[in-house]
Amino acid sequence: PPPPGRSALQTLFDTKICDCCLMCNINTRFATSKGYWKDPYIQYFARSVGERKAPEINRGYYARVKGVNHLLDAFIRNSECNCQVINLGAGLDTTFWRLKDENLLPKKFFEVDFPTVVARKIHNIKTKPPLSKHLIETHSTDSLILDTQSLDSDRYCIIGADLRDISALDEKLKKFHLNPDLPTVLLSECVLVYMTPSQSSNLLRWAAEIFHTAMFINYEQVNMSDRFGQVMIENLLRRQCSLAGAELCQSLDTQKERFLKTGWEHADALDMMTVYSMLPQDDVARMECLEFLDEKELLQQLLQHYNICWASKDKLNLGNSAVCKSFDLRLFI
């Protein structure tokens, strides 16, 4: 039976979203196994993949990882790690472990996702020493706060919550010592698109009201009104997965406007084809040699239908607005 207050249809919809999360991790593991980028921790969250993934998919994931990490790392460096990160709809993401290895760990790293996803991730962390080791090394007391839907340590916290329920989300984050006065970067990757426009607007407005110095990084679909975009929507519908927020993914302008209308001071966006062209060309050349790509036009279409949108508030004048306004080649050097 569905949980209290949830219809059977909504429960099915949420389950399909979780399935997409797992597929994302499988795709990530495949791409890293081919050498597109390094992620020594994904093996503990995603099974190995027998079937080959299309090169254009792997290149798309490469651009996504490089683009999002660039903005995230720039924010953390600007604050000299005196900040916090909130990964919304984090799934089985490994960013916390990467930042620890690269000495870029913020004061605290929060993750939020459905309780079922969180339970699975906590189980993996508990049973895989290379994962738990990083938590132990950054924790100052003998015991962690741990149950099936949450794990809290000094520097890492994972919470089971529904992003559509803002009051419950706010309560749980504060319970685990979220600090509204710290510079904060919020991440969402293919998350807002599964929420209705009113639900995602409530989330963005809450974040803008809570944090005075912050950046929100959002990766998801764009240009969904053309034929290619409609085919993407239809393919997901056939898998019983609806993009409830597709109307806000019509253009780069609609992506930016959603932030400006909910209290963010500055917003900008680039489609992933543009981001791909801005990445360090020596590493792009290395990556492109990994697999032959026959369908270059398909890659271009795919990248033109995803984007990174980022918004900022900068009361403390840390320079994060400058980061937001200057997403160019100089920042990749």
Automatic annotation (TrEMBL):
* UniProt similarity note: Belongs to the methyltransferase superfamily. LCMT family.
Q: What does this protein do?
A: Methylates the carboxyl group of the C-terminal leucine residue of protein phosphatase 2A catalytic subunits to form alpha-leucine ester residues.
Pfam families, A to Z: LCM
Q: What is this protein called?
A: Leucine carboxyl methyltransferase 1
Cite the InterPro entries for this sequence: LCMT1 (IPR016651), Ppm1/Ppm2/Tcmp (IPR007213), SAM-dependent_MTases_sf (IPR029063)
Q: What is its EC number?
A: 2.1.1.233
* Entries under Gene3D superfamilies matching the protein: Vaccinia Virus protein VP39
One GO term (biological process): regulation of signal transduction
EC top class, as a word: transferase
Q: Which GO terms describe its molecular function?
A: protein C-terminal leucine carboxyl O-methyltransferase activity
Catalytic activities:
[phosphatase 2A protein]-C-terminal L-leucine + S-adenosyl-L-methionine = [phosphatase 2A protein]-C-terminal L-leucine methyl ester + S-adenosyl-L-homocysteine
Identify the residues that bind S-adenosyl-L-methionine.
64, 89, 162-163, 189
Q: A single GO CC term, please?
A: cytosol
Q: Which organism is it from?
A: Takifugu rubripes (Japanese pufferfish)
